[in-house]
Write a structure and sequence with these properties.
CATH topology of the largest domain: Tumour Suppressor Smad4
Shape: elongated
Cofactor: Mg(2+)
Number of strands: 15
Domain DAGKc: 1-129
Keywords: ATP-binding, Kinase, Lipid biosynthesis, Lipid metabolism, Magnesium, Metal-binding, Nucleotide-binding, Phospholipid biosynthesis, Phospholipid metabolism, Transferase
Distance between the termini: 26 Å
GO molecular function, one term: ATP binding
Structural class: alpha+beta
Number of helices: 9
Strand content: 25-35%
Family: Belongs to the diacylglycerol/lipid kinase family.
CATH architecture of the largest domain: Sandwich
Largest sheet: 11 strands, antiparallel
Number of domains: 2
Length: 303
């Protein structure tokens, strides 16, 4: 089998760059050929993964959730799906947490060398893809507007500071969600669709799965022109969602589960895909079951 190792040299604190020889030497224990590609710009990982899917049996990559999303954009439409091995090196690593893939390089490589292959669901959003989260509204821009220098300096706290700086107003927008025969029209400050268990480092969707063919949606309602107290109430609802989880009873949160949705929002509402800036406006969302060939820890239950 032949393999390419693609890595983001600035992800996290850049530690993976110092371990390239070790990573390649370990990968050669499993793969006959191991090539290496270092990304240089945003979108570079997607292009590299797309080309690699045509030539390699395996793509091993390192980076954060955003890097995972870039790889997904490159391989999701491949005719033959290569196996994917993942060495988490980002700031939060929600996907790795959900899949129990260690952040430690040595232990992550142990999973790649001795783990097992499972087919995971991913999400198609119009003509783009997401692995574990699609979101819009309050705080969702923080993951892609936070400067890399801040993330290196103070880690995940940088996201919180960026979110507070840019999202304290809690802008309200109209949203219509269609799920088969069910339709909800309301005003909202936050819409969250989940395919994994962790979001922003929080174990918010404890019974979520990458292999059940469905998504969980949480929508935080708000009035069109909220008073100060109603804004505070929305803050509390959002905090409860993240602190106590998707199943926690909160009257200001609407919940859905399903495999296909249509969501209508104004054109200026920007969607976040796995921590990366996505598209804006209306979206059609569907689960693509058992699409991604992923190496995970052997014997992993509740994927």
């Amino acid at each position: 089998m032949n393999c390419i190792f693609i890595y983001n040299p600035v992800s996290g604190k850049g530690r993976i760059r110092k371990k390239i020889k070790y990573v390649v030497d370990k990968l050669r224990e499993k793969y006959e050929i191991v090539d290496v590609y270092e990304t240089r710009a945003c979108g570079d990982m997607t292009a590299a993964a797309r080309e690699a899917a045509k030539k390699y049996d395996a793509i091993v990559f390192s980076g954060g959730d955003g890097s995972f999303n870039e790889v997904l954009q490159g391989v999701a439409s491949a005719e033959i799906m290569p196996e994917l091995g993942y060495i988490p090196s980002g700031t939060v690593n929600d996907i790795a947490h959900s899949l129990h893939i260690p952040k430690n390089i040595r232990r992550a490589l142990k999973v790649i060398l001795g783990g097992e292959n499972v087919m995971l669901d991913c999400v198609k959003v119009n003509e783009r893809y997401a692995m574990y989260v699609v979101a819009a509204g309050a705080f969702t821009s923080a993951t892609y507007t936070t400067p890399q220098s801040q993330k290196k300096l103070i880690g995940r706290m940088a996201y919180g500071l960026e979110g507070i700086k840019k999202n304290m107003r809690f802008d309200v927008f109209p949203v219509e969600v269609r799920n088969g025969n069910e339709t909800v029209n309301t005003q909202s400050v936050f819409v969250l669709l989940m395919n994994g268990r962790y979001v922003a480092g929080m174990h918010i969707n404890k019974k979520g799965s990458f292999a059940d063919g469905k998504l969980e949606i949480a929508l935080v309602k708000q009035t069109k022109n909220p008073t100060f107290l109603k804004r505070i109430r929305a803050y509390i609802a959002l905090a409860r969602l993240f602190l106590f989880g998707y199943k926690f009873k909160e009257k200001q949160i609407v919940r859905f589960e399903g495999s296909e949705f249509e969501i209508f929002v104004p054109e200026n509402v920007i969607w976040n895909f796995d921590g990366e800036k996505g598209i804006s406006g209306n979206v059609k969302i569907q689960v693509l079951p058992k699409k991604i060939n992923m190496i995970v820890p052997k014997g992993l239950k509740n994927i």
